[in-house]
Design a protein that fits this description.
This protein is an alpha/beta fold. Helices cover 34% and strands 29% of the residues.
Length: 297
């Protein structure tokens, strides 16, 4: 487990991170969501050893994280949003160059190259100059370079920006496969990607974690419209589950078919009458825009 405890980081008077704490599993996909400037990049930069935190501690399987990182260079890797390769070189030249950074013996190095090329399906493009690749192939090369040390923790920062739908599907399925054997920390502004990929999600804003939750994909938003919308009836409903007023209706993110059935039994006994009732999917976008709904997950 990757344990992040009370991490703080200031840039002069700007508090980029304010006592951030998270527990991340050893495998699966952990999505870190937030608007630009929320603190995502600063936190990832700290975890990759690029930036030093001002306060707090980080542990990996109960070992001080940076001690583990110093001893094991395959512990983590970062695939940044920007293309991190040389456009004047071929795919093969870039792969060979970056694979040498890991100081592996010849046999192990070849294994890692074959692994990265196979995951990203780049074998047939080895002789192409990277400046001439399509945007999708550049994204695949960016990912392949991040895999050359077969990391236990892979940080992916907006890995599907600016690519066609077919390549996006390929990359997302590749990420799903990779997450079976490692932890992937994933940032994206595409909520449908996060909904598809993420096992756990945290929302960060202004340097603070607003909420973190498991992505069950089973919860629903329950929307009710009361025949008599008044404080007394709303209080009765809130005895059963928490509701939020929304445009003359009441909503709860803590719902499914079973809880709806029990709610109807509860309200029937109390003579509450509804104009309308609906259950709709609870998306990651809903939670990102309204973190108070995280109790549903």
């Amino acid at each position: 487990m990757l344990q992040i405890k009370n991490i703080g980081k200031n840039y002069n008077s700007l508090k980029a991170l304010k006592s951030v704490s998270l527990n991340l599993p050893n495998s699966g996909i952990f999505a870190l969501l937030g608007v630009n400037g929320a603190g995502k990049t600063t936190l990832i930069s700290i975890l990759c050893g690029i930036v030093k935190a001002d306060s707090g501690e980080i542990f990996y399987n109960e070992t001080p994280y940076f001690d583990a990182l110093e001893k094991d260079h395959s512990l983590c890797s970062l695939t940044p949003q920007e293309f991190a390769f040389y456009p004047s070189l071929s795919v093969e030249e870039n792969i060979n160059f970056f694979s040498q950074i890991n100081a592996l013996d010849t046999k192990k190095r070849k294994e890692m190259i074959d692994f990265a090329l196979n995951i990203c399906a780049l074998e047939e493009y080895m002789q192409k100059r990277t400046a001439n690749l399509s945007g999708g192939l550049k994204r695949r090369l960016n990912l392949a370079i991040g895999l050359l040390n077969n990391p236990k923790i892979l940080f992916l920062d907006e890995p599907t920006v600016g690519i066609d739908p077919k390549t996006r599907e390929f990359i997302l399925n590749s990420i799903k496969e990779l997450a079976k054997e490692r932890l992937i920390v994933y940032t994206s502004h595409y909520m449908h990607e996060v909904d598809f990929l993420a096992d756990e999600i945290a929302v960060i804003n202004d340097g603070e974690i607003l909420t973190s939750f498991k992505n069950s994909r089973q919860s629903r938003v329950l929307t009710l419209e009361l025949q008599e919308h008044n404080a007394a009836n709303i209080k009765i409903l809130n005895e059963f589950m928490p509701f939020t007023e929304c445009g003359g209706c009441l909503q709860s993110g803590a719902a499914n078919e079973e809880s709806l059935s029990k709610l109807l039994e509860f309200t029937k006994k109390r003579n509450l009458i509804f104009k309308s009732i609906s259950l709709s999917p609870l998306s990651v976008q809903t939670l990102f825009l309204n973190p108070s709904n995280d109790e549903a997950l």
